Amino acid sequence: MTPEELKDKWRRLNASDAGNDAAQRRSSRPSFYDDRMIDNVTSGRVTSARERLMGRYRMMFAGVAPAGMVCSLPLARLLPWWGLAAVMVFFIIAAVMDYYLYRGVKGIDLSVDGVEEVAAKVRFYRRRHHLFQLLLIPCAVFVVSLYFIYLGGGGEIRWALAVGVVVGLAIGLAVYLQMMRDYRQML
User: Fold this and answer.
1) Which end of the chain is more exposed for a tag (fewer CB within 10 A), N or C?
2) 150 and 118 in one domain?
């Protein structure tokens, strides 16, 4: 192929792309820029496992714990003072633990830390999550038993408490499994 033939083919190729701006833009960028997943990530529609964990912990310490404390205030007439204090302490401990885990997960920097360091931190905070659950589950059983003892005068209230326990366990198990999946994805 002579240099003139090469120049002629080059001009024809440029002429066919000249009218089409998108084709011209596409030809100057690598092909992976046109991937739909890359567009989703760069636009912020896709969140990482770390961001999901941080969001769940933030929701728990900033939303659920204060709501639990506020919703337990009307029980002051029905529970003894130490029972209401136990409910409040339960929610305060849960909020502090969730805040600790939030700060810990937020401190994991995937772009700076090495793979081994990230894995060690993820395992550490997942272990802390389980230890905190081992502390909070007996407290929750104590609080629910207080409700059964002091609020369970009639059969309807006991059924409502039982349904609430079952629904709460189902929601809690679903959130727990999602969080453990996010921890596994970070490893």
Assistant:
1) N
2) yes
